[in-house]
């Protein structure tokens, strides 16, 4: 069934106009420009598409629905109409169901936005022949555990697919790309302790990669760097995600993958709501305060705003390939995440300790100062905020800390 659980069109949107730090200046030259978002109906992709729309960008979403739902597009349209209901000029939202690796279909889609075909539209500010002035790439497979089981699928989609996609963008002179990378590129460097700096891993070498998934992300970064070196017209910004959780405060967008979830929070939610009997904690003997692994959890809406910050900073950053961490700089253990969700939801979450998983590390935290300085980006939301917004998406009552204690 193409409908994720319990969403409500009548949901209130608290403070939806109170924080819009990233917006583009609207001019006659940019009114017809678009941002192409591949994988734009997925968890991070849909939240980024929504932040783009709020900031006034026209958005084109391409998604093959392999791990998302068509109804997410309907939610985005509902949010867009509601947000701009009193305004005459509104950004547009175009959606195409397609695989970004399908060259024939993608060429047909991108051609629709070519200035050579639509001469009345504005010329791209990037100097190309398309009204698509920026692209955000979310179309990778992303499960660490699955990447051990299906490495060829991961290399084919994540690496070979990106190469063909970039060749198509180059054909249309679309040379501004924000790439969804991952903290997994740091591999075993995470075990050295402390916050991870971008320079710990670059396009020439990265030691101790712990999964095929992490290797695909590093390979893509290396390829994108080579593209930018070979052609100085390219601007490529790779955003290394840490652990996105939470959902939009409207309660209409959230994490609801078609596939079996591998990340912590979706499993916590399934245990909390009774879909799973118990949460397996992978290892209680890590060298951490409570023995469980520590991760840098960042609210998905904060993460989404990081993509807007990257697009808006492209002129300041200049051409070439750049990497930025998107994380909070603060780690939380698995037990702390469980405790926060229990506190906010008022529900007990049964846990069971099992052995460690292949590819896991003890601690993984970002050093986010480069993103603050160069992108003007900083996280706004706390771990408890993440849990509250998840409960809102699930239509669960949010408990006060006093009630739980």
Automatic annotation (TrEMBL):
It comes from the Eukaryota. Gene3D superfamilies: NAD(P)-binding Rossmann-like Domain, UDP-galactose 4-epimerase, domain 1. Keywords: Isomerase, NAD. Residues 1-26 are annotated as: Disordered. It holds the Pfam family Epimerase. GO terms for biological process: galactose metabolic process. InterPro entries: Epimerase_deHydtase, NAD(P)-bd_dom_sf, UDP_G4E. Its cofactor is NAD(+). GO terms for cellular component: cytosol. One of its GO terms (molecular function) is UDP-glucose 4-epimerase activity. Residues 35-327 form the NAD-dependent epimerase/dehydratase domain. CDD domains: UDP_G4E_1_SDR_e. The keyword Nucleotide-binding does not apply. PANTHER family: UDP-GLUCOSE 4-EPIMERASE (PTHR43725), UDP-GLUCOSE 4-EPIMERASE (EUROFUNG) (PTHR43725:SF3). NCBIfam families: galE (TIGR01179). This is UDP-glucose 4-epimerase.
């Amino acid at each position: 069934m193409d409908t994720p659980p319990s969403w409500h069109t009548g949901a209130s949107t608290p403070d939806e106009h109170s924080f819009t730090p990233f917006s583009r200046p609207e001019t006659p030259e940019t009114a017809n420009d678009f941002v192409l978002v591949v994988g734009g109906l997925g968890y991070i992709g849909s939240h980024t598409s929504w932040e783009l729309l709020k900031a006034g960008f026209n958005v084109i979403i391409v998604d093959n629905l392999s791990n998302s739902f068509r109804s997410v597009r309907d939610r985005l349209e509902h949010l867009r109409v509601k947000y701009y209901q009193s305004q005459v000029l509104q950004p547009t939202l175009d959606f195409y169901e397609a695989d970004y690796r399908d060259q024939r279909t993608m060429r047909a889609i991108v051609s629709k936005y070519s200035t050579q075909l639509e001469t009345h539209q504005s010329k791209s500010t990037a100097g190309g022949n398309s009204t698509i002035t920026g692209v955000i790439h979310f179309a990778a497979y992303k499960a660490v555990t699955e990447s051990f089981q299906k490495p060829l699928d991961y290399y084919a989609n994540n690496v070979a697919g990106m190469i063909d996609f970039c060749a198509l963008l180059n054909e249309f002179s679309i040379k501004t790309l924000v790439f969804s990378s991952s903290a997994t590129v740091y591999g075993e460097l995470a075990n050295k302790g402390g916050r991870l700096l971008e320079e710990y891993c670059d396009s020439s070498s990265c030691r101790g990669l712990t999964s095929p998934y992490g290797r695909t992300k590093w390979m893509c970064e290396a390829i994108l760097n080579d593209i930018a070196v070979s052609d100085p017209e390219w601007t490529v910004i790779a955003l290394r995600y840490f652990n996105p959780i939470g959902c939009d405060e409207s309660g209409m967008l959230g994490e609801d993958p078609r596939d079996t979830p591998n990340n912590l929070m979706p499993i916590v939610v399934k245990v909390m709501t009774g879909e799973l009997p118990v949460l397996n904690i992978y290892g209680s003997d890590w060298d951490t305060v409570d023995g469980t692994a520590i991760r840098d959890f960042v609210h998905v809406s904060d993460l989404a705003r990081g993509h807007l910050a990257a697009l808006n900073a492209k002129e300041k950053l200049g051409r070439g390939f750049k990497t930025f961490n998107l994380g909070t700089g603060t780690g939380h253990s698995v037990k702390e995440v469980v405790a926060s969700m229990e506190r906010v939801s008022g529900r007990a979450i049964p846990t069971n300790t099992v052995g460690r998983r292949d590819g896991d590390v003890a601690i993984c935290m970002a050093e986010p100062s480069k993103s603050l300085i160069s992108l003007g980006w900083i996280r706004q939301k706390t771990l408890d905020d993440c849990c509250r917004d998840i409960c809102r998406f699930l239509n669960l009552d949010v408990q006060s800390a006093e009630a739980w204690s």
